[in-house]
Amino acid sequence: MPELVHYELRDQVAVVTIDNPPVNALSPGVPEAIEAAVARAAQDPEARAVVLIGAGSTFIAGADIRFFETITTREASLERSRSVHARLRHIEDCPKPLVAAIHGTALGGGLEFAMACHYRVAVPSARVGQPEVQLGIIPGAGGTQRLPRLAGAPLALEMCTLGQHIPTHRALAEGIIDRVIEGDFLAGAITFALEKTQSGGIRKSREQNAKLSDRSAAIAACAAARHNLKKIARGAHAPYAAVDSIQAGIEFGFDAGSEREIAIFADCVLSTESRAMVKLFFAEREVAKIPGIPKDTPTLEIRSAAVVGAGTMGGGIAMNFANAGIPVLLKEVTQEALDRGLATIRRNYESSVTKGKLTPAQFEQRFALITSTLTYNGFDRVDMVTEAVFENMDLKKATFAELGRVTRPDCILASNTSTLDIDEFARASGRPAKVIGTHYFSPANVMKLLEIVRGRESSAETIATCMKLAKKLNKVGVPVGNCFGFVANRMIAYYMREAYQLLEEGASVPHIDRALVEFGMPVGPFAMQDIAGIDVGARIRQYLRSIGKHRAEGPESPVPDWLFDMGRYGQKTGAGWYRYDSGSRTPIPDPLIDDLAGKAAIARGIERHPIPDDEIIARIMTALANEGANILDEGYATRPGDIDIIYIYGFGFPRHRGGPMFYADTVGLKAVLDRVHRYRNQLGDHWRPAPLLERLAASGQTFYTWNAARRDAA
Ligand code: T1G
């Protein structure tokens, strides 16, 4: 068993080094070993002070998340938390100055250990945080009690409810960090610790009350935090729980506050919300592990790029490359189209400057990296081309044929198609190994999801290169197979099918949207379509009909096409599923929609009736999970977690629900299957149960246990 904590004396200072790669998580044995080492230093006559530091790339990145699932009872959780609280109190009672030396990150339990030390020093690039809410829990080792005492209630509330990482310079300004050390970090920390033997001595965070002296202001900050959460929590519970714990400490003091924290933590860690978010944590790290493509697969360095098509998507894609510092050619067929595309890019950058997200200098620098062109000149020098022309097979094949002629043999040829067959483009290009789909989501410069669509002959190098590029473009790259609509759009077609059907059956547009928003979606299906544009979907449907395809099995509602024929494209035309006052994005319900839905219902012989919220959610989520099961069974997605990541980053599916596949697991696959059977009887054969769903329901498995068994068997 490798030593988890090392002890050495340097210049009369005991240096305690945590050594538990890769991120010094507080795995079983680590907290105990730290406590023992600090106790040893307290007894060590040679040691005048103690420095706690991490080996490798970081300080402590928190509790070992892999062990959360081993906490199965409230009692077990209470006992664990009580013991860690006692351990930190013991460490804090060290009679010699104890300094935490932070490099990389001090997160969650890592920051809590650091705050139990008397002082904290850090390198300039370090980050500290209490990201527990991103795991559906609250800080459970005194963070909600010590942080407000060090940084004050407002910042503690911000950090514990948002979970973001705070950079060193801000942590210093706010009193979390005591000194920033440049140069030889350990030497600087030792010097600082020795200084504290002269002045400052022992300073216990739990006894620092100055920043909470204005109790009513601190309590008011808690109320403000709760109010603020109404806008952003979207149904998540943990952020509110963190406020409750902080407020308890402000009102009743450190000890009572700690007891409250322990109790609240116990409820959170056993919650479905936390199970969902812990699954997502690991799903986000697993998504890049592609079967058959080892971690060390060679990749091409993308130093220059080109985008064909300067429409809404093409322009946004070009911005991604420029934002990552990669010079990019932007090609269009007419000057007018090019000017329109560049004007949209300029407007996007100007609004980022206005919002303070970008400096004017950064705007200029990025805009300068985009070179507009009407020809393929220069395409023979780029490492990658992304095609973003209109969604038409002949046009795309012609474009890929041209690209195959004008680019270098090793140049990667990617398509932003959202529905068409990548293999057709690959054949047209003459070098299928270099062809791949990179499906961005609108607005492409904002949405983090990037579906990386492997064609039949896409090489491992091409796929690995695009997965790596996704990180560079600050996107979440998810590898998917080349089926119709890939994963995101293939499933969303069933989501929308049910939304349209529920409308025809009697639920109104605002009702359906409200039900989904209360479920945790950022917007409902109809408001989402008004943002994306009803015309986009209508034109794709027209094209698909012309090639004898349609997006989802089952009845196709005529209503969205009626709106298209009426020129109601959504926000961009002031009317779609809702009406919008000029210059406003606030949706106004329009009785016309109910009339249209009524007409469609009559045509389909449906008697409209009231539909409760939970039935709306059940229908839509069951449709998603059932189609997701087909996609997994057919191998177009590797893991249920990949699908959940796609819905979290592509459609804002609520993280605290875990994604459509995890959500189905929480409902229970037997119950989900029963619903499919019920809907089939009520609504028609298009509700065909996915064979994988039937198999798992019969064997009592979940999507995630099925996947874990496959992974372990591999
Ligand atoms: N526990 C277990 N494994 C972890 C881990 C953790 N806390 N953090 C990272 N890993 C694994 C990860 O799965 C991956 O494994 C490898 O380390 C590298 O991670 C009491 C209860 C630190 C910023 O939420 O945010 O403390 O895939 O790919 O991009 O109040 O990891 O290689 O097999 O992410 O450089 C609070 C979680 C816990 C921090 C590094 N802490 N980690 O990012 O590497 S709750 C967190 C991160 C808590 C207390 C409560 C990031 C990172 P593999 P990586 P990275």
Describe the structure.
With 714 residues, the chain is an alpha/beta fold. The chain contains 28 helices and 19 strands. The strands form 4 sheets. An 8-stranded mixed sheet has the order 12-11-10-13-14-15-16-17, with helices on both faces. Helix 23 (613-634) packs across helix 26. Bound molecules: (2S,3S)-3-hydroxy-2-methylbutanoyl-COA. Residues 22-23, 25, 61-66, 105, 107-109, 112, 131-132, 135, 137, 139-141, 143, 285 line the site of (2S,3S)-3-hydroxy-2-methylbutanoyl-COA.
Mean pLDDT: 96
Global shape = globular
Cα end-to-end separation:
27 Å
**How big is the Rg?**
28 Å
> Low-confidence spans: pLDDT under 50, at least 5 residues?
none
Helix-strand makeup class: alpha/beta
User: Main beta sheet, described?
Assistant: 8 strands, mixed
Sheet with the most strands: spatial strand order? 12-11-10-13-14-15-16-17
